[in-house]
Amino acid sequence: MQDLNDRLASYLERVRSLEADNQRLEVKIREHLEKKGPQVRDWGHYFKTIEELRSQIFASSVDNARIVLQIDNARLAADDFRVKYETELAMRQSVESDIHGLRKVIDDTNVTRLQLETEIEALKEELLFMKKNHEEASRGHWSGQGLEGQTSLGWGDRQNRPPATCRDV
């Protein structure tokens, strides 16, 4: 931005310098023509037109410099938007990757939960079976029968056998 402002300032200063040089040359030309003699023509009526054209040229030059500055600003803004777009795109891709990974974790967790629920059900069944065996063994004990025959059938078989979920998997 500063570079463009500096260029505009130097351009305007150059235009002023050239205008001053033109005025000095015009004065010298007039003096020379006055010294030369009566053949001098009166160019005065053209000076007004020349000044108007000069002011138009100057205004056009200023407009041109302003437009160049606007173009450079637009180019810088476009670059900023491109960088922002690329940053946002990278962030979006990262978030999508994270979401994909988290969905996989959720799926794995659901599978593990289902396995654990199945194992809980099997353990509940085993607990009921063991309670039932314990009650039968207790009734047998109180009725005068020995526990050895009944406990060896229930408890020993359960210890050597894996849980139901392990057999199913």
From TrEMBL:
Keywords per UniProt: Coiled coil, Intermediate filament, Keratin, Phosphoprotein
Gene Ontology process terms (BP): intermediate filament cytoskeleton organization
Gene Ontology CC annotation, any one: keratin filament
Database matches in Gene3D superfamilies: Vasodilator-stimulated phosphoprotein
Coiled coil: 1-35
Positions of region (Disordered): 139-169
The keyword Manganese belongs to this UniProt entry's keyword annotation: no
GO molecular-function term, one example from the UniProt record: structural molecule activity
Annotated IF rod domain residues: 1-169
Domain of life: Eukaryota
Keyword set includes Coiled coil: yes
Annotated protein name in UniProt: IF rod domain-containing protein
